[in-house]
Amino acid sequence: MKWPGVITKIHPSRKTWRRAISQRLPLFNDNASPARAAPARKDNDMTEQQHDESKLERVIRKIKRCLALSKSSNENEAATAMRQAQALMREYRLTELDVRLSDVDEVQSEKSRANRRPTWDRHLSGIVAKVFGCRPLSYRHWCDASGRMVERALIVGVTPAPQIAMYAYETLLAKLTQARREYVAQVRSGKSRSTYSPETAGDHFAIAWVSVVHSKIQELVPRGEEDPAIEQRSTGRDLVQVESQDNALIEQYLAGREIGKQRKARPLELDMAAQIAGMLAGHKVQLHPGLATGRETQMQLSGA
Q1: What is the spatial distance between Cα 198 and Cα 183, in angstroms, rounded to a whole number?
Q2: CA-CA to 50 of 20 to 30 Å: which in 155, 187, 195, 268?
């Protein structure tokens, strides 16, 4: 299995991305000479800039509504909506790709580590992101609060998928971290036996835990052939096409970022006792779909 790549250059936020569209400037202007650097903005300049970004967001939302109406069965209504969308795109120098890319978002985990994220942590974020049709990455950057380099999970996808995926990942991570801590304590106290050190045994426990929970997450996310409501609106081919389009948008969004190559996981010979303990603990985890709010879905956990 390949682990997520590591982003070594700071990602621009969605706000920075929208500003780049409005100004038609590159996201990373590393080659600008000091002589050409923009002067410091005053407060009124910043306010004007914020207004421009807010206006751009409203324009993009209006274009999206027009594009949706352009698919109407009423030919006159569809033609009028398409003309309005095209006029707005010309006026604000937006392309159809700009409009579609506005749906792509990146979400950083609140949990950071001073060292490289362990294998089981990367494995967890990887499977969760992929189940929700997102791209899992590790984001390494300087943290002013701690005064050192840190690494955290980052998930990129078409909204609202990355937000849902990050919520699921962080919820599962908290549960897994607690279960691993308890198992390590058992190994240290001699209640659980292992031929490895307590920390290594804990890693093996966590890897097995993730492998079991993976199937539970897949069962939780509805697919076209499993959800009658989805099946009535689309076919399996439609779903594949949507996933392909989303993947293309994600790749376009990440184009130009400095992303390290994915590393192949080295084969691990797991401690049998730790593996069994991790699988048993994973089987006890119960995932419950929460009440849906719009397109958002929440998850609750119970069990060990």
Answers
A1: 8
A2: 155
> What would you report as the CA-atom Rg of the chain, rounded to the nearest whole angstrom?
23
Backbone CA torsion sign across 260, 261, 262, 267: negative
Give the position of tokens 């950071």. Answer: 112
Residue-wise pLDDT tens digits, 158-167: 988 899 899 9
Would you say 105 and 162 are in contact if contact means Cβ atoms under 8 Å apart? yes
User: How far, in Å, CA of 277 to CA of 297, rounded?
Assistant: 30
The answer, yes or no, to whether residue 108 has pLDDT greater than 80, is yes
Question: pLDDT band at 7, cuts 50/70/90?
Answer: low
Model pLDDT for residues 204-257, shown as the tens digit of each residue: 999 999 999 998 888 777 655 444 444 444 555 555 666 778 888 888 888 877
Contact present, 89 and 96 (Cβ < 8 Å): yes
Q: SS3 for 251?
A: helix
153 and 125 Cβ atoms separated by less than 8 Å: yes
* Residue 19 near residue 49 (C-beta atoms within 8 A): yes
Quote the tokens at residue 161. 């998928």
Q: Give helix 161-189 / helix 272-284 axis angle, nearest 10°.
A: 130
Strands 286-289, 104-113: pairing is: unpaired
